[in-house]
Amino acid sequence: MRKHITGFSNPTVKYLRSLRDKKHRKRAGQFLVEGLRLLEDARASGRVPRTLVMAEGRAHPLLARLEADVMAAGGEIIETTPDILSKITGKENAQSVAGVFDEWDTSLAALDRASAPIWLAAQALRDPGNLGTMLRTCDAVGAGGLILIDDCADPFSAEAVRASMGAVFTVGLAQARWEAFLPWLRGGAGQLVAASLRDAVPYRGAAYAAPCFILVGNESQGLPEEYEAACDLRVTMPMRGRADSLNAAVAGAVLAYEVLAGLES
Amino acid sequence: MRKHITGFSNPTVKYLRSLRDKKHRKRAGQFLVEGLRLLEDARASGRVPRTLVMAEGRAHPLLARLEADVMAAGGEIIETTPDILSKITGKENAQSVAGVFDEWDTSLAALDRASAPIWLAAQALRDPGNLGTMLRTCDAVGAGGLILIDDCADPFSAEAVRASMGAVFTVGLAQARWEAFLPWLRGGAGQLVAASLRDAVPYRGAAYAAPCFILVGNESQGLPEEYEAACDLRVTMPMRGRADSLNAAVAGAVLAYEVLAGLES
Asked: Which chain B residue shows the shortest CA-CA distance from A255?
């Protein structure tokens, strides 16, 4: 179906704009992705937007293919003015296309732990940029995906999706409380590893085993002590400076590359 | 000197507010830092704000010490309302204190390359969060500091300072064009290392030598080919996924930890 929208107060415009807000995303079960590149990443991973919103008169071979896919899937194409598109995305210079996706199943049950040797997990990760960066790191190290434990930033926010560089579409993603995560983990093979200063061995050359779940904690609090205690392995990274800390996404990535090297050696 | 300000249109309020903007920061040669924790990090590194702006009636032992230092250095203390403080910092819930610092010398000449075995360098790094994260990584790995090459984000922006977790005050910082950086580098000992896919050796166990300068490129373009060609060593990190890339700050950190391990083994 094709629609042409020229009015700022059109209810569809209001709806699309509301998806910038987490509460509305959760209620609708949908999220908005801006830019042809991310939409192409999604398409390549078999995710086709429910609705495609385009600035009038834009033409691009990739866009044409995307339009065809959306139509074939029974979706909707909306053409509108650049101003309305800017209003929807909240950016002064909006890119010429955005897509609305249905959120998907992010339960632990949807993950196949045997599908990858490494998994990342983050507890109470609050920064959507860090979250997206961790998804991107998952892609780089061949990790199965990212498990978000307790109250984390929304992986479907524009900032997280952008920072993931499309990895949100290609790597696994789950959200769970710790009370659900731990029994799930212990219901199968899996080594839980935390970066820690307590009772830890050097991260370099530690005895990592697949599937290895690398757990990082909240940006300002780190991991709760009882979460660390539940880990199979606590490793420590050199801290040569004044502050005993690294950015959470950085710590996860340094560990992930070490685990990758360890498992492959 | 102590001042009490209650009017939103006070010229000092306007001036402080203007420091949120890069253009005004450059003109004034000053920047604004919010929050007692960052101000404490600065103080511990011997950097005392020129002006301290506090919400009325706040008391804290650390704040008292900071006030004394500012007064001893001939600086200014401004007391004002929480609303005005929010207006200055641009945050709805401003912390109760902010400080104005003079920017310092960020020329290459101010760096002592012999003072540390590792240095980070970033070319055309646009994201202030990435920049701050790299400063923080410098602190963690004991690097001498960060060299910003070509047009990068402003290290004195509120976002960069915050992401650095205070490391902007404690590690070295320089800004230079490539045309100035390369002769400076070649004027002394120093190995220039880039993460690259061209003509590269595995990053793991490569022949790193101190002082080792780790160079990462722009977030979307990577390094220009001629910059890579000028490096002494090009190393490649495993990329197991769909996208051949990592977040710039993450790539720098993974490499920095590998270099640290290599130099210490």
From this structure: B254
Instruction: Among A139, A204, A241, select the one facing B261 at the smallest CB separation.
Output: A204
Quote the minimal CA–CA distance from B206 to chain A in Å.
Answer: 14
Q: How many domains does chain B divide into?
A: 2
Q: What CATH number did the domain enclosing A79 receive? A: 3.30.1330.30
Question: Are both B26 and B92 inside the same structural domain?
Answer: yes
Selection from B158, B11, B13, B35 nearest residue B87 by Cα: B13
- List the one residue out of B38, B262, B261, B202 whose CA is nearest residue B135: B38
**What's the ipTM?**
0.93
Token representation of residue B215:
């160079």
Q: Which helix (H) or strand (E) holds B139?
A: helix B128-141
- Residue A125's domain comprises 108-264
Q: What is the pLDDT of residues B69-104, one digit of tens each?
A: 999 999 999 999 999 999 998 887 767 899 999 999
Strands A233-236 and A201-202: parallel
| A109, two tokens | 């049950």
Extract the residue ranges of chain B whose pLDDT is less than 70: 94
What order of strands is seen across the sheet that includes strand A233-236? A172-176, A145-149, A118-123, A212-216, A191-195, A233-236, A201-202
Assigned token pair, B92: 């709805």
pTM of the entire predicted model: 0.94
Mean pLDDT of chain A: 94
- Going by the DSSP 8-state scheme, the letter that residue B238 receives in this structure is -
